[in-house]
Amino acid sequence: QKEVEQDPGPLSVPEGAIVSLNCTYSNSAFQYFMWYRQYSRKGPELLMYTYSSGNKEDGRFTAQVDKSSKYISLFIRDSQPSDSATYLCAMRISNNAGNMLTFGGGTRLMVKP
Amino acid sequence: GAVVSQHPSWVICKSGTSVKIECRSLDFQATTMFWYRQFPKQSLMLMATSNEGSKATYEQGVEKDKFLINHASLTLSTLTVTSAHPEDSSFYICSAPTSGWGNEQFFGPGTRLTVL
Q1: What band does B114 get if pLDDT is binned at 50, 70 and 90?
Q2: Less Cβ around it within 10 Å: N or C end of chain A?
């Protein structure tokens, strides 16, 4: 079993839909959770960075962490074709600079106009 | 966010040659940088952790003599793929954590290596 599981998709939605992307993990020591967006042939771009359980909102994006269930989510409101990309969840045990990230496999999202 | 650059963005080389990839943090210093490899439609696989002024730490299964890492300064790390073979063809991405509260990791744009 992988440490971080993520449905690979593809997930296809119409423009304007609310998108829900999810990851589950097995290591209860993870405390810092991130979502990255990666366009084809580009490096990942940091979207959201949260600590412990709770919600964090930034524009159309909301990140949710439920540590008791070992489950994190990214919600995208009013999805746009430009949101079409692969979304990677990532997590780490501490925020020490030398601490590595553990990634999910990524979910490919397609938003159709 | 912070900016990390990579050079070159794309390289084709003959089998048996060596290729050097540079990773630079443009507006911050990074004592640690990370090197990843990504195959098509797969997630990032951590290869090694590059430490300024000391030896890199390699992940299990990554050959340190094949993938030479040098972290010569607080803004530059290099990955050299030695004696490249077609199976080394991949997308290589570096990242660097900033020194803010969360030490967020920012990624470079990646280098696509094709070995003929």
Answers
A1: very high
A2: N
Tokens standing for residue B60: 């299990």
Strand partners, A63: A56, A74
Q: Is B6 in Cβ contact with A103 (below 8 Å)?
A: no
- What tokens does B35 get? 């090197």
DSSP character string of B20-42: EEEEEESSS--SEEEEEEE-TTS
pLDDT at position B99 over 80: no
> How far apart, in Å, are the Cα atoms of B77 and each of B48, B54, B61, B69?
11, 12, 21, 7
Q: Does A32 touch chain B (CB under 8 A)?
A: yes
Query: Residue A75's CB: how many other CB atoms inside 10 A?
Result: 17
Interface of B with A in 55-84 (CB under 8 A): none
* Predicted confidence (pLDDT) per residue in A6-29, tens digit: 998 899 999 999 999 999 999 999
pLDDT tens figures, B45-77: 999 999 988 899 999 999 999 999 999 899 999
Number of neighbouring beta carbons within 10 Å of residue B68 = 16
* Distance in angstroms (rounded) separating the CA atoms of residues A80 and A83: 5
| DSSP state letter for B99 | S
Using the Cβ of B29 and the Cβ atoms of chain A, whether some distance falls under 8 Å is answered with: no
Give the model's pLDDT for residue A35: 97
